[in-house]
Amino acid sequence: MNELAQKEQRIHALLKERGLGALLLRRISSFAWATGGASGYVNTAADVGAAALLFTPQAKFVLTTNIEATRLEKEERLAALGFTLRPAPWYEGGPDVAELAKGLKLGADGLYPGAADLSAEVSRLRMHLLPEEQARYRALGKLCGEAIAAAIRRVRPGQTEYEIAALLAEESMARGALPIVNLIATDERIFAFRHPLPTAKKLEKYAMLVLCGRKEGLVASVTRLVHFGRLPEELRRKSEAVARLDATVIAASRPGARLSDIFRRITETYAATGFPDEWRLHHQGGPASYEPREMVATPTTHDPLAAGMACAWNPSITGTKSEDTILVGEQGNEVLTASPDWPLISVTVDGKAYARPAIWEVG
User: What are the backbone dihedrals phi and psi of residue 201, each rounded to the nearest 5 degrees, phi first?
Assistant: First the structure.
């Protein structure tokens, strides 16, 4: 059974479980998941795309306008994949979902009039990656790890955060990955903000680059830091502590492990490394796939991990952070976003060594 057929099987199993007859997928992430990586959006900042999918017992429809239909047919090849395109004139109200799903109880991957909200259930479907998706994720992770390393090697003191963001976007786009998150902080802004949108501030000594790159719907997340001149000892201590945190959470991310238990272990490690309250200042990450985070680990998220799921963990201590996207495997975990020739910190957890990114010192 091919990738799309397996996903349709999952969709119809979900509908049967919930006593529903049709499923409407409007989110960009869901559209890409159900089509094997097709792009149904125009606005890259939107959650809901310019095209939607409707699954019924007898058919699967692409609902869009006449503006998008030709590209979806010719470049995304959705008709060839068995979808029926139902374009509506752009100046009208759009396809009539109620008519196409007439007589069927409707579910949707978010809030939609008259539909049951299955957003959490659909997110869980997206998280369990098939072998074809795992292969695409490996390719994407490699692109993102290379892009952020290449961008940092072009960073120089005196550049503005906008200019650094442009370098990161260029290196990412040149490799075919869309930078849907591009965060840059320099110097004191790294200590002040966990989500630093780039500004006109000029780099003096220290820069943090954060990338969430999207390709064929999947999203890989990665953070790297660079310091010009010798790293202050306090920052080095924090960097080593956050590397231990990252290694610990990667080691804990094994099939069957519950997110709540992984969260407890990382908070215990924050305390053991001398930074007991830093976890309160930012989430620690969680499973990823067609969203940067499909869910975030908390004390009450008891979902278990499984082989074939990806996670993007991002422990942080004020002034530093460690983030990569990993793939959970039966025999071990793969770091998908490793950067070539990057300085590493070796951390031993439960008798096994893990190499985590250090702050790159230049000069």
Answer: -60, 140
Q: Give whole-number Cα distances, 182 to 25, 45, 89, 146, in Å.
A: 27, 12, 35, 15
Res. 363: pLDDT tops 90:
no
Question: Would you state the pLDDT for residue 1?
Answer: 81
Q: Does domain 131-362 have CATH number 3.10.290.10?
A: no
If one counts every other C-beta atom within 10 angstroms of the C-beta of residue 280, the result is 9
pLDDT in tens, 190-226: 999 999 999 999 999 999 999 999 999 999 999 999 9
Q: Which CATH superfamily is domain 3-127 in?
A: Creatinase/prolidase N-terminal domain (3.40.350.10)
Instruction: Parse the chain into domains and list their residue ranges.
Output: 3-127, 131-362
Mind listing the pLDDT tens digit for each residue in 90-99? 998 777 898 9
Sheet with 178-186, side-by-side order of all strands = 178-186, 206-215, 218-228, 360-362
Mean pLDDT computed over every residue of the chain = 97
Q: Where do we find the tokens 């370098």?
A: 167
Contact 314, 221 (CB under 8 A): yes
Whether 322 contacts 304, CB under 8 Å: no
Query: How far, in Å, CA of 290 to CA of 284, rounded?
Result: 18
